[in-house]
2-C-methyl-D-erythritol 4-phosphate cytidylyltransferase
Amino acid sequence: MNIGIILAGGIGSRMGIVDKPKQFIDIYGKPIIVYTLETFDNHPEIDYIGVVCLDEWMDDLKILLRKYEINKVKWLIKGGMSRQESVYNAIIAISKDVNDDDILVIHDSVRPLVSHKIISNNISSAKQFGATDTVIPSTDTIIKSLDGLQIHEVPNRSELYIGQTPQSFKFELIKRAHETAIESNKLNSTDDCQLVLDLGEKVKLVMGDKLNFKITSFDDLLLLKAIIKLGKTEMV
């Protein structure tokens, strides 16, 4: 079984929006989270979906699921105080319904242009290797500075990648990674793959896409609007 876990527990603080989280912002009459959910709902390999959501927005989410006929959502899960806690809440919520070898495809709700190909490649890789991260090669030179004032290192660009989501795992592995992190009092990780690496396990890479960007600023919103308006996304 392949389960999409959609993380929608953020409040969009970096965008300075106070009336609603960014995942609920309308783009041409449809909230960003709906674009994301529709892609997972329409994907033939995704069996069920769990959505991690802010408690105060849960009723709004239920209305959207009915309105847009998102039928694969099986679990609605209360978000935590951090990304790590939100993912672990999802793991606990679905644990009675899944097997150790089932695949969790964990994705940010504010990456609405994820393609079916990326999701399929995640599932295939996670089934084979246990843990998978979606990345794109870094096309810019990355500068490392320890103080924000001067260059301390210029890493080799050919070795650098930009992380995206989905991040996908066999259920037993990601559950063990989170429980080990909690036991070690590591409680605020922003990356599930790091928790798996901390176990000494390997994480394989699959290629993402520049269109699979995360909405974090108003510039991102403008770009998303332009892409959708021009119809240049190919959700296959």
In short: The chain has a mean pLDDT of 94. The chain is about 35% helix and 20% strand.
